[in-house]
């Protein structure tokens, strides 16, 4: 994949903290040991505001899909969803709960720019009960773990805003693009 993209350390820190809380230290150790040697220190010692190579995130996702989810897409999406919520922090969850999921999803392009550098962009279209997020120019969407991670992250954002059961589905994807459709709970009633 592309070597120039980077992600903030909060990805690794959130995954590690949620794993520890939900599954115990043994699974954190198992995941770290299964990662490539050059990525282990990133997973173990990541600082939330530092930039790390995208390849480390890809490695972590691959290990989590195998070790935690055991190849089950739903388990993996649920893990990403819960880790995303956990990584938000209690104070921000309280503030974000005051916003709607539609409002938060309109802010995804800003979040993308704060969490990644060196590749990709996001556009958001909203029409009534449906939000479509269009990820472009990001060369990792051939990897199914990235598509699943995106679904889990969006579900987590929606849940933080009080939409407890959003329908999040991949509408279309290719090598460097992904379209995700979200049907919001409040509008489905």
Query: How much helix, percentage-wise, in residues?
Result: 40-55%
CATH architectural group of the largest domain: Alpha-Beta Complex
What's the alpha carbon Rg, rounded to whole Å? Answer: 16 Å
Number of strands: 7
Number of helices: 10
Mean pLDDT: 92
| N→C terminal distance | 42 Å
Whole-number total of structural domains? 2
Give unreliable regions as ranges. none
CATH topology heading of the largest domain: H-NOX domain
Query: Strands across the major sheet, in which order?
Result: 4-5-7-6
The H-and-E topology, N to C, reads as: EHHHEHHHHHEEEHEEH
Q: Please identify the structural class as seen in this structure.
A: alpha+beta
Instruction: Write the CATH homologous superfamily of the largest domain.
Output: H-NOX domain
What is the strand content? 15-25%
CATH level-1 class of the largest domain: Alpha Beta
Principal-axes geometry comes out as globular
* Main beta sheet: 4 strands, antiparallel
Structure notes:
With 189 residues, this protein is an alpha+beta fold. It has two domains: 6-90; 99-188, H-NOX domain. It has helices at 10-23, 25-34, 40-45, 54-67, 73-88, 90-96, 101-106, 108-115, 144-160, 185-188; strands spanning 6-8, 51-53, 116-117, 121-127, 130-136, 167-174, 177-183. A hairpin with a 2-residue loop joins β4 (121-127) and β5. α1 (10-23) packs across α5, α2 (25-34) packs across α4 and α5 packs across α9 (144-160). It is globular and about 45 Å long. 37% of the residues are buried. The mean pLDDT is 92.
């Amino acid at each position: 994949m592309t070597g120039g993209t980077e992600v903030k350390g909060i990805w690794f820190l959130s995954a590690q903290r949620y794993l520890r809380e939900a599954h115990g230290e043994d699974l954190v150790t198992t995941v770290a040991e299964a990662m490539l040697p050059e990525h282990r220190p990133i997973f173990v010692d990541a600082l939330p505001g530092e930039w790390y190579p995208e390849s480390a995130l890809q490695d972590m996702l691959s290990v989590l899909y195998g070790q935690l989810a055991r190849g089950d897409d739903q388990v993996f999406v649920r893990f990403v969803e819960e880790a995303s919520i956990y990584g938000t922090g209690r104070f921000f969850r309280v503030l974000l709960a005051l916003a709607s999921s539609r409002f938060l999803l309109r802010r995804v392009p800003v979040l993308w720019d704060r969490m990644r550098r060196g590749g990709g962009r996001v556009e958001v279209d909203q029409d009534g009960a449906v939000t479509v997020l269009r990820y472009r120019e990001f060369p990792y969407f051939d990897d199914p773990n990235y598509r699943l991670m995106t679904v889990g992250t969006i579900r987590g954002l929606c849940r933080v805003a009080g939409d407890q059961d959003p329908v999040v589905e991949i509408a279309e994807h290719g090598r460097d693009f992904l379209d995700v459709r979200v049907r919001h709970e409040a509008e489905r009633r």
